[in-house]
Design goal:
single chain, about 375 residues, alpha/beta, 12 helices
């Protein structure tokens, strides 16, 4: 498929560098989703290097997310190229990837097809290893990451979904808001079926990590659990996770396949994390910058994700230990996994406040909160 897409790609027309060192590629082939393609590669990047695709969240830009999450700095440290697709206000007023729109989440159509064409172009442009392409995204970008892993599974060796939602659980804005507020509410086989019906599954293993905060008032934590159920079943992994090492700050659930190169799924539920990417910015090895939806938590999901994918062999990236809540030993992971999302469903008012937090002044937030309370949408 990559070869076929490359033959259809016209000559590259590169724009001057944008902020953060990214360069726009204006011609990359079919672009039915009308997205922009931005890339970055460290100087003297060798042939056969990995490629990491990063998908920003609502209101963010490709430049802001790639830099604030630390992917540009890590690309320079570890030696890989970065592809950062960008949404426009014309497609979505809040610059959210349209992870819920039927015309954008089907193989060969819309935004999904545009991102697939960008991957093909970036692999060709940087002479990257097509077997070492990874994808990560936050919020709507996380949900779009699930779309890409479902509709173009042969393109990716690994993924990371941060504060995202399962593939296929929404087909409209109202569906999306319901899923954001309370989770998919579907059993694992039904969720897995959405993935399995999207495209034929390749034989190659997938390394997928899910990050979610238990204090997320924008995308309910139940979505993290639903994502793990969806992909555990789709990858033919165990229904329940294996044991994980205890430690403070989060619950880690792990599913491992069988064989010499099995698929592996991890889900991190981070205590006290609101809607955003968890970062650590205080250690010498850290990458990333605190910004709206980029949250200091004393752990760096970007570093840990890179190590999980195998882009770095350094165990130091996993410096922060993890915990299975309420478990005295490593023998019963089920209780912690089941308890992760038993919090009160998040209402529409909470979602609105979570979305505007960090983007408007406290005075404006107070006005919005009063209006939502008057409408009975916020307690």
């Amino acid at each position: 498929m990559l070869a076929r897409l490359r033959r259809a790609v016209p000559e590259t027309s590169a724009a001057p560098q944008g902020p953060g060192g990214l360069t726009e590629t204006r011609s990359f082939g079919a672009n039915p989703g009308a997205l922009k393609m931005w890339t970055y590669a460290p100087p003297n990047l060798p042939k056969g290097a990995p490629l990491v695709v990063v998908l920003h969240g609502c209101t963010q830009t490709a430049h802001g997310y790639a830099n604030h999450a630390g992917w540009i700095a890590l690309a320079e440290r570890l030696g890989f190229a970065v592809l950062a697709p960008e949404q426009s206000n014309a497609n979505n007023p809040n610059r959210c990837f349209n992870w819920f729109a039927p015309e954008d989440i089907v193989r060969g159509r819309g935004e999904a097809a545009s991102i697939a064409a960008m991957v093909a172009k970036a692999v060709d442009l940087f002479e990257a290893d097509p077997q070492s392409v990874f994808i990560s995204g936050l919020s709507a970008g996380g949900a779009m990451t699930a779309v890409m892993l479902a509709t173009y599974p042969e393109l990716f060796a690994g993924g990371a979904i941060i504060a995202g939602l399962p593939y296929g659980v929404a087909r409209s804005v109202s569906d999306a808001l319901r899923a954001m507020g309370r989770g998919a509410g579907r059993p694992a086989p039904a969720l897995a079926g959405l993935v399995l019906d999207a495209a034929p599954r390749p034989a190659a293993p997938l390394r997928l990590v899910i990050w979610h905060g238990d204090a997320d008032a924008t995308v309910h934590p139940a979505n993290g659990r639903d994502l793990s159920l969806q992909w555990a079943a789709a990858l033919n992994l165990k229904a329940l996770p294996d044991a994980a090492p205890p430690g403070p700050g989060r619950t880690l659930s792990v599913w491992r396949g069988e064989g010499p190169a099995p698929s592996v799924l991890e889900m991190h539920m981070v205590e006290g994390l609101a809607h955003g990417t968890p970062l650590s910015t205080r250690r010498d090895c850290d990458v990333g910058t605190v910004a709206p939806f980029m949250i200091e938590m004393g752990l760096c999901s970007t570093l840990e994700t890179a190590a999980f994918w195998g882009l770095s062999e350094s165990a130091a990236f996993r410096a922060t230990p993890v915990r299975n809540k309420g478990e005295p030993s490593l023998t019963q992971p089920t209780a912690a996994f089941e308890a992760q999302t038993r919090s009160k469903p998040v209402g529409i008012g909470d979602q609105v406040m979570g979305a505007v937090s960090g983007h408007v002044s406290p005075q404006v937030q107070d006005i919005i909160a009063k209006a939502l309370r008057a409408a009975g949408l916020l307690s």
